[in-house]
Protein backbone atom coordinates (compact mmCIF):
# COMPACT_ATOMS: atom_id res chain seq x y z
CA UNK A 1 0.00 0.00 0.00
CA UNK A 2 1.10 3.51 -0.78
CA UNK A 3 -0.08 6.68 0.97
CA UNK A 4 -0.02 10.08 -0.70
CA UNK A 5 -1.30 13.54 0.15
CA UNK A 6 -2.43 15.56 -2.86
CA UNK A 7 -2.95 19.32 -2.95
CA UNK A 8 -6.33 19.88 -4.58
CA UNK A 9 -7.63 23.34 -5.46
CA UNK A 10 -11.28 24.27 -5.98
CA UNK A 11 -12.94 22.28 -3.19
CA UNK A 12 -15.15 24.51 -1.08
CA UNK A 13 -18.07 22.57 0.43
CA UNK A 14 -19.48 19.25 1.55
CA UNK A 15 -20.56 18.42 -1.99
CA UNK A 16 -16.93 18.77 -3.11
CA UNK A 17 -15.83 16.37 -0.37
CA UNK A 18 -18.45 13.80 -1.40
CA UNK A 19 -17.58 14.15 -5.09
CA UNK A 20 -13.86 13.54 -4.51
CA UNK A 21 -14.18 10.87 -1.83
CA UNK A 22 -16.92 9.07 -3.78
CA UNK A 23 -15.19 9.05 -7.15
CA UNK A 24 -11.70 8.19 -5.89
CA UNK A 25 -13.05 5.70 -3.35
CA UNK A 26 -14.85 3.85 -6.15
CA UNK A 27 -11.58 3.07 -7.94
CA UNK A 28 -10.32 -0.50 -7.63
CA UNK A 29 -7.26 -0.57 -5.39
CA UNK A 30 -8.11 2.52 -3.33
CA UNK A 31 -8.50 1.55 0.33
CA UNK A 32 -9.10 4.99 1.85
CA UNK A 33 -9.73 8.59 0.82
CA UNK A 34 -9.92 11.52 3.22
CA UNK A 35 -10.50 15.11 2.15
CA UNK A 36 -9.29 17.96 4.38
CA UNK A 37 -11.34 20.84 3.02
CA UNK A 38 -9.63 23.61 5.02
CA UNK A 39 -6.13 22.48 4.06
CA UNK A 40 -7.17 21.73 0.44
CA UNK A 41 -5.59 18.28 0.72
CA UNK A 42 -6.67 14.76 -0.12
CA UNK A 43 -5.06 11.78 1.61
CA UNK A 44 -5.26 8.58 -0.44
CA UNK A 45 -4.13 5.08 0.45
CA UNK A 46 -3.99 2.72 -2.51
CA UNK A 47 -2.51 -0.46 -3.96
CA UNK A 48 -0.08 0.44 -6.76
CA UNK A 49 -0.66 -2.99 -8.32
CA UNK A 50 -4.31 -2.09 -8.99
CA UNK A 51 -4.43 1.66 -9.60
CA UNK A 52 -1.89 4.32 -10.53
CA UNK A 53 -1.40 7.71 -8.92
CA UNK A 54 -2.02 9.25 -12.35
CA UNK A 55 -5.43 7.55 -12.51
CA UNK A 56 -6.32 8.94 -9.07
CA UNK A 57 -5.26 12.45 -10.12
CA UNK A 58 -7.22 12.10 -13.38
CA UNK A 59 -10.33 11.04 -11.44
CA UNK A 60 -10.10 14.13 -9.19
CA UNK A 61 -9.51 16.30 -12.26
CA UNK A 62 -12.60 14.78 -13.92
CA UNK A 63 -14.65 16.02 -10.95
CA UNK A 64 -13.60 19.57 -11.78
CA UNK A 65 -10.79 20.14 -9.28
CA UNK A 66 -7.14 20.97 -9.88
CA UNK A 67 -4.51 18.63 -8.50
CA UNK A 68 -1.24 20.45 -7.81
UniProtKB/TrEMBL annotation:
In terms of Pfam families, this protein maps to: HMA (PF00403)
Do you know which SUPFAM superfamilies this protein is assigned to? HMA, heavy metal-associated domain (SSF55008)
- Please give the InterPro entries that the UniProt record associates with this protein: CopZ, Cu-bd, Heavy-metal-associated_CS, HMA_Cu_ion-bd, HMA_dom, HMA_dom_sf
Q: Which residues cross the membrane?
A: none
The alphabetized UniProt keywords are:
Chaperone, Copper, Cytoplasm, Metal-binding
**Gene Ontology CC:** cytoplasm
Q: Localized where?
A: Cytoplasm
Q: What is its main location?
A: cytoplasm
Q: Which GO terms describe its molecular function?
A: copper ion binding
Q: Is Transmembrane there in the keyword field?
A: no
All copies of domain HMA, residue ranges: 2-68
The biological processes this protein is annotated with in GO are: copper ion transport
Q: Which PANTHER family does UniProt cross-reference here?
A: P-TYPE CATION-TRANSPORTING ATPASE (PTHR46594:SF4)
Could you identify this protein by its name? Answer: Copper chaperone CopZ
Recorded source organism is Neobacillus bataviensis
Lineage at the top is: Bacteria, Bacillati, Bacillota, Bacilli, Bacillales
Amino acid sequence: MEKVTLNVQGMSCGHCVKAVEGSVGALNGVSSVKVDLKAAKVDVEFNTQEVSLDKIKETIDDQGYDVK
